[in-house]
Amino acid sequence: MLAALAQAGCGSGSTATSSPVLFFGEHQAGIATPAQDKLSFTALDFTSTSAMDLRDLLRVWTQAAAALTAGRTPPALTDLSGAATPDSLEALGLGSARLTITIGLGPGLFEQAGEDRLGLRARRPPALTPLPSLPGDELQPARSGGDLCIQACADDPQVAFHATHTLLRLAHGAAVARWSQVGFGRTSSTSRTQETPRNLMGFKDGTNNLKREDAGALQRHVWVGSSEAPAWMRGGTYLVARRIRILFDVWDATDLGGQERAIGRRKVSGAPLGAEREHDPVDLHATTANGPTIPMDAHIRLAAPETNGGIRILRRGYSYFDGADPDTGQIDAGLFFLSFQRDPQHFVALQRRLGVQDALAKHLSHTGSAIFAVPPGPRRGSFLGASLFG
What we know:
The protein has helices at 2-9, 51-69, 157-170, 215-221, 248-251, 256-263, 299-303, 344-357; strands spanning 38-46, 100-105, 148-154, 175-183, 185-186, 237-246, 287-288, 291-292, 314-315, 318-324, 331-341, 364-374. By secondary structure, the chain is of the alpha+beta class. The strands form 3 sheets. Strands 5, 6, 9, 10, 11 and 12 form a 6-stranded antiparallel β-sheet that branches. A 4-stranded antiparallel β-sheet has the order 2-3-1-4, covered by helices on one side. A hairpin with a 2-residue loop joins β7 (287-288) and β8. The chain starts with a helix and ends in a 16-residue tail after the last strand. Mean pLDDT is 93; it is low at 1-17.
């Protein structure tokens, strides 16, 4: 009876106003897809010692994700312990809400403490190594790392939660949640059809981000190439997740001019300093009587490809608010930074520079960090990561 109700109701509610984003495709959705408003991100520890359990988990996740992203009730499935897992129905009637589900594989699946625990060490991508210590790090182990990740983005927070809840239930017997983060507002646009959002500092964020329409740039900077090893990652990418807390006691005490010089843009319009409109070119050579128009330590100067050997990354971040810090009484809020890049060392190079020279660094604390390999999208009739297993 419940299954019939769910099948009848799901996708027919009044909030279902946009077309579903299909799970199958050349690349996983939720990367270059136009960024949705809500995020549910969870990292997991893989508790099994069997590579076949990992294969079976990715297969059952594929079945569930294909249904969920289409706005349908998942088929009758069993979790990795063999128990039936009927749909929990909390998203009944909400439609797809442009849900995307993106799955990543962490370094610990291939090697952990020097051990080849799943027999997959020979298949580890050379680029998939734990991130080194970086400037600005005040990392909390309980908010870092993970063997797997689930990124669920949607325009309805309950749809995103339902997707995460469903995949976590299906993982029972093979994996458990390690940490999670909820995001309530996107901090960058990933399509030219979207307006640039504001972050919690009040500035338009990600104006010059890579966009889905930049196919050539995405191929150069985001997607693993057709000749790169290992073969099972071709068409995939690498995800870096960083929880960046804004130190509001410092930021709020900085006057408007100081904030704009730190960013390199006007707060209201989003225009680069020395320009009038948000999308005007950033002129890094312009000067005034007092020196460079855009200060040498401004964020947009130090993050610009022109000053970083052409490095570009695809940002897909979200604002978060996790209440008050019980030790300081300060609010714990900031940016949950997600970046996708063909080579994670590009992120490392950028952060090493920003963490030392960026005027924003004194306003930020990096409290969580993780890296994941994101395989290409699955083909119909197959499952995510199938070629990893030969």
